[in-house]
Amino acid sequence: MRIKNEERMNKSKLGKTTMLIKMKKLIKNCSVLAGAMLFSWGVHASTLQSIDYNVLPGDKVMVRLSYSDMPPTPQEFTTNSPARISMDFAGVDSGLDYKTKDIGVGAVGSVTAIEAGDRTRVVINLSELVSFNSEIQGNAYVVTLDAGSGAGSAAASKPGTSSSYTASSEFDITGVDFRRGTAGEGRVLVTLGSPNVNVDLRQEGRTVIADFIGSDIDPDFIRRLDVIDFGTPAQLVETSRRGDTVRLSVRGNDRFDYLAYQADDLYTIELKPLSKQEIERREREKPKYTGERLTLQFQDMDLKAILHTLGDFAGINIVISDDVQGSMALNLVNVPWDQALDIILKSKGLDKRKEGNVMMVAPADVIAAREQQELEANKQQEELAPLRTELIQVNYAKASEVAALLATAGGEGDSSKVGVLSERGAVSVDARTNTLIVRDVSSKLEDVRRLITQLDIPVEQVLIEARIVTASDGFVRDLGARFGVSDTFNSQEAATSGSLTDTNFRLGLLDGQATLDDRMNVNLPVSNAAGSLGLTFARLADGIIVDLELSALEAENRGEVVASPKVITANQKEAFIKAGEEIPYQQSAGGAAAGGGATTIQFKEAVLELKVTPQITPDGRVILDLAITQDTRGEELVFDGVSGGAPAINTQEIGTQVLVDNGETIVLGGIFQHRTKYDETKVPLLGDIPLLGWLFRNTSRENSKEELLIFVTPKILKQGLKN
């Protein structure tokens, strides 16, 4: 009879709980706690929800204990060694997910809350015993502790009283202002009439709320400020009066952190923007449980009844194995239902499997054994199943590459690679039609088709447009002279000196009239001169003639060559662009020293070449692996005094990797060359004579600049060449 009565009681409790949960779904504002408390042995008047603290001027600390309802007056007592203040709250539960909150300010080290029986003890751990003041403020119990300057005793005031002060102003809050910090943080500055104002700071969603308890505010500062234009995480600042409390609400975006601090009569709330790394860290640390939150409080409740209660709350069907037995006590406050389910299953050694809207719950070892049996049965069925042969057309990939992915481990293959086919399966390739010939059981053939459907897709292509710009700027100036002296000898012309290239008369007498070239004894002209000036400089006594010819060349050139090649290549496939020449040169089989042998013509490349391999990233950008080479014809080498050997090649090369947005043009870099050249040819001694030395001197100045720039623009082709 006793067992039957207990079963009726459990069924009655389960029915009441289920009814209350269904009412919660209809109303949404009711709590499952109302139904769960029907099963608890005692009903508590209040629950400790949070422990907060504020730092007051002078290293004073205000500890605030927040409850679900008005807390009872605690029994307080202190101890000297260790220094502690203990408070027992009768009929109060602890709803905290932690036992100790570290503070480390002033004389306060930490605050510990422990639930024992029908009461909760809160212990404030101190470095030394200090004076304190405590009072009840609405649903909170506030303890204000002095800084602790070596006081040897503590004078605890009676609960329910608070320290009094004289405000320095008519209002407790005399100003509210907003400013932007240097690091982009938003600061709300609250000017207090007295530094002893109690503040309750918390965050609700995207809003930071500061309640100034027992305070009044200048009516001029009850307003709403739109601060979005400041470019900080703060968007809206609003002040309002709620009874004897002034509420300051700061609404921010969804990416900020906040802190508050007080210096004398200035209270500051600061919203700091989060860095990218901090945002990613918070995303990773987000809880994996997404179920609707609920509160459960059970004492010695049947385990199956608890699981059915969770199933009704979540709206899923739960099938419970007969191996699930026993009961448990449970006290969960405001947790997601899926987290509550995992806690129950882990504590009882259970596991779950879900298919659609049905969840099966059984002991973990039972589920593992059942799955092992299913695997063995499937393996046996696969070994006995008939083999089928199927032809699978591969459209975009190479059939040989796909076949390598399908091959099984073992045999001649690499044992570290696991394929899709079974041990009995085989695959071959028809290269002519790019077709796979697969032989395996039906289940594996379905896996092969599904895999090929995912892999055999068109490879994205990239259009790479390169612009190779070569610019040159040159300037050349040459100056030269020819100079000669001639005289007559026995009525015949005679030159004083000669033996120069353009002088016809070397030494001796000339018949008849001498030409100008015959009279030029100093020969330093400009080659390929643009112009020359010849004149008889002087005819001296006794028929002596001084001749002078000046020649000059000044050349200036500017050039720009733009090459714009384009190439399309598949993703992760190399493409190259090449432009230049092949330089021919003679090569003798026997060599010049051996008297020469059979001579052949060889070619040497001197090209401007661009090699690029694109890789499309998942976010639509392109990684380019680039290699750029510029070869130009150099000087012709001379071997053993014989010219005509292989020419030298001047090489400039660069290799780089860049990440580029789709359609973006970047400058890969370039090569800038500036060449300055000065040549001077002169007659020794005579060419160094001031002013007159120009007649015995040839000068040449050359100044040239060359620059090579390479631009690259990658474009991802979504639909072949249609775009």
UniProtKB/TrEMBL annotation:
Occurrences of domain Secretin/TonB short N-terminal (ranges): 316-364
Keyword Signal on entry: yes
One Pfam assignment: AMIN
Domain of life from the UniProt record: Bacteria
Cleavable signal peptide: 1-45
Subcellular location: Cell outer membrane
GO CC terms, sorted: cell outer membrane
Gene Ontology biological process terms in this record: protein secretion
Main location: membrane
PROSITE patterns linked: T2SP_D
Keywords, alphabetical: Cell outer membrane, Membrane, Protein transport, Signal, Transport
Sequence similarity: Belongs to the bacterial secretin family. PilQ subfamily.
Protein name: Type IV pilus secretin PilQ
Record lineage: Bacteria, Pseudomonadati, Pseudomonadota, Gammaproteobacteria, Kangiellales
